[in-house]
Write a structure and sequence with these properties.
Length: about 240
């Protein structure tokens, strides 16, 4: 029996926006074929996230932390999708969110009394400023350093790397995604929204994998027994050898 396939809508690809979407999709197919080994590592990381999503810790004091775990997973999915489609700068914007969500969850696990501050952020201007001050990234990552200096070193390096490569509007991200060439006496600058350089894509895959694995390691410090029981801890150890 022939499988049902989604029919491409009439007009798809005939305007500049859907034509771009289709090109991005085509890049995903190419990445899937050409970087199969790297893709399989990302798939294994996603499987660990999926196991945690399907088997949550149903304890009242962990509900907010579960939220950050799920958001970290969804950011991982989006970041990998962008990396596969060759939207490499934008991938780093989202991959930073993978780490930030894990840091928020870890921080609230160690400071449960601050949950009220996070929940009340939108109450008024004063509560918003209090939340901003309370959940500054350097405070959260400094706490990680106190609890696990080795993991802190990895997380801080990855966090800075995503910023350098696009999470902030830095020159390095611009330079790595721009072609410069000359014709006669004119210099041309061609900025690539879709960067199809194979080495750049491979690096983006590696960063996505390391960010996803690092995020899982941070949550492992919160849910150690649960990770052990689900086999997630064992899966993390096997993936460390690959990344």
């Amino acid at each position: 029996m022939e499988e049902n396939k989604i029919q491409i809508p009439i007009g798809w690809g005939e305007d500049s926006l859907t034509a771009y979407f289709q090109l991005a999709n085509d890049n995903c197919y190419a990445s899937f074929v050409n970087l199969k080994d790297d893709y399989l590592i990302l798939l294994r990381i996603n499987s660990l996230f999926e196991s945690l999503r399907k088997n949550p810790v149903n304890e009242e004091d962990k509900l907010i932390i579960n939220h950050f775990l799920y958001r970290s997973h969804s950011a991982f999915l989006a970041g990998v999708r962008l990396a596969m489609s060759c939207e490499l700068v934008e991938a780093n914007m989202v991959l930073r969110g993978v780490l930030e969500n894990s840091l928020y969850g870890f921080y609230l696990h160690n400071n449960p009394e601050l949950a009220v501050t996070w929940l009340n952020r939108q109450q008024n201007d004063e509560s918003k400023e209090k939340a901003k001050e309370t959940f500054k990234p350097f405070k959260m990552i400094d706490l990680l350093k106190q609890k696990n200096e080795y993991l802190y070193t990895i997380a801080s390096k990855l966090y800075d790397m995503t910023i350098d490569l696009g999470a902030h509007p830095n020159f390095l991200a611009l330079a790595l995604n721009m072609d410069i060439f000359e014709t006669e006496n004119t210099k041309h600058y061609n900025y690539n929204i879709l960067n199809t350089d194979s080495q750049s894509i491979e690096i983006s895959f590696k960063i996505a994998g390391r960010v996803g694995l690092c995020s899982l390691c941070v949550f492992q410090m919160v849910f150690q027994k649960h990770f052990d029981n689900l086999g997630v801890s064992a899966g993390i150890e096997l993936l460390k050898e690959k990344l």
